Amino acid sequence: MTVNIINITKKSRSNIFSQNYIFSYIYVPLKKVKFPSYLASFFSFCFVYIWHGWSKDIMVWALLNYVCVTIESAFKHYYNKYIRKWCEQTFNCNWRQRFACMLAAPLLALSAISNFYFFAGMDVGNIFFRKFLEGNTQRLCTVLFSLYCCSQISSYIKKREELSYLANKLK
Questions:
Q1: What is the rounded CA–CA span in Å between residue 150 and residue 55?
Q2: 8/73 Cα distance (integer angstroms)
């Protein structure tokens, strides 16, 4: 069960060259000398920050992406270790997918805000971040529900693509 639109790790891997370079020359060597994953990831994002420029907006963008990746990785670790078996016995596939999309909505919001910092700069990023945090409960729930719907649609599209691929492969 993956939620395609918010899988931050997959999003950051979309640039094959940079992902392979960072993984091969920064992340793996740090892991070989027994760095914890979260520190190896942190130094990888530090490299991305330096690569894209030393500006404040790039720093915030890299930091927010690091936070998203770390939260996603920590959740997957604890889910697989402690919760997965219980969820599979208790809930059907559709409810597990809904639950994953519900948990993904805040990460999708944080990821979107980080992109405002990257593409539009500090002023625009700060406006969106402030509006997200300062909004009343109704606004926050509306935004999170919209992002939940985006995650659901993305999940269904991904599932349909996988089924189509398998059907074509069997022909």
A1: 31
A2: 10
For the stretch 152-170, pLDDT in tens is 999 999 999 999 998 888 8
Residues 103, 112, 31, 76, Cα dihedral to 10°? 10
CB 60 within 8 A of CB 122: yes
- Where do the structural domains in the chain lie, given as residue ranges? 4-170
> CB-hemisphere CA count at 13 Å for 44?
29
Contact between 44 and 22 under an 8 Å Cβ cutoff? The reply is yes
What residue type is 84 in one-letter code?
R
CA nearest neighbour of 123 among 50, 57, 61 = 57
Residue type present at position 99? F
Exposed, middle or buried: residue 122 (CB in 10 Å: 0-12, 13-18, 19+)? middle
Token pair in block for residue 133: 């945090």
Report the pLDDT value the prediction gives residue 8, as an integer from 0 to 100: 53
pLDDT single digits (tens) 62-87: 999 999 999 999 999 998 999 989 98
